[in-house]
Amino acid sequence: MSNTKQILAMLKSRAEGDDEAFFSIALQIAASEARQGHKRAAEELRAVVDKARAQGSRGASIPIPFAHPRGSVEGLLEMRQPRFKLKDVVLGDRLLSRFSDILRQQRKRDWLREHGKVPTRRILFVGPPGSGKTMTAEAIAGELNLPLYVIRLEGLITRYMGDTAAKLRAIFDETAKRRGVYLFDEFDAVGGQRQATNDVAEMRRVLNSFLQFMEEGNSTDSIIICSTNHPSLLDRALLRRYDQVLEFDTPTSTQVQKLITSNINPLSAPRLAWGKIFAVAEGLSQAEVVRAVDDAVKTAILDEKARLTTEEIVDRLRERHSMRTAFLDVEST
């Protein structure tokens, strides 16, 4: 039976509109019921809380107003409503297994907390451009019915002493107040090695602040995802701050086939020579394969064709290789 303090705390949190505190107290009551042997009552309470949380997340159809605890986060966070689920992302079995475990921990986070554990929430994505890192972050938010907040690095990093660290503090305060998935894309801009020759004292202070903030826990269990194309640039001290480091690779032959077959609509493509396609697609990223197929489909539509041929797909894949070569030539001049 819940005590008077818990009832008062629930009423106060409800009056203040603090849903997370309201749900947290409800789950404390569920844990107390479970310890007293009232297993069915505890399960019913958990089920009601899970349902209420899911409905609340799905109902967020407009941007959520941000609080300003230690300086404004306006212009630092871009909120996106997730458009994808994991089924929409082409990933290998190893990565899918890791994500399934992360999602399970997040969905049952209250059960873990009842036993003094916290779910996986600090994740580093490593992989080449176009390998699906950003899309996967959005898919995780979609699976958990949470908003995706993308940190805008151009607004975060400034030349004023102490300003960047203060903005980081405001962002981490927000993760503790508002449950969501927070994505630091191109994270090497913040997490570069402190001994780098082009480094300055201010960026060393920023990284030190980030390391400190990453160690802090919070009751919302917001997921923090850092994504980088250049893991070699990251400071080694970051590695032990992450619960998981997940590596994204260029697509395998099986993944290339799935990417192509799922992006040829509204056309058909019977009897494709997959061996020839796989040979040309080797080394291209997921994004490059998808754009190559999209280009082939658009050309076929304008040519009033109903199907794609192997050569049409191969030609577009070769174009993507040519673009990459041209880009490398520009960099070397």
Main attributes of the structure:
333 residues; alpha/beta; Rossmann fold; Helicase, Ruva Protein, domain 3; 3 domains; 6 strands; 53% helix; globular
Structure notes:
With 333 residues, the protein is an alpha/beta fold. It has three domains: 4-58, no CATH class; 77-247, P-loop containing nucleotide triphosphate hydrolases (Rossmann fold); 253-332, Helicase, Ruva Protein, domain 3 (Orthogonal Bundle). The chain is built from 14 helices and six strands. It has helices at residues 4-15, 19-35, 39-58, 93-107, 109-114, 133-143, 153-156, 163-177, 188-191, 201-215, 253-261, 274-281, 286-302, 310-332; strands at residues 77-80, 122-126, 148-151, 181-184, 223-228, 244-247. It has a six-stranded mixed beta sheet. Helix 1 (4-15) runs antiparallel to helix 2. The longest helix is centred in the last third of the chain and has 23 residues, at 310-332. The chain is globular and about 75 Å long. Mean pLDDT is 82; it is low at 57-71.
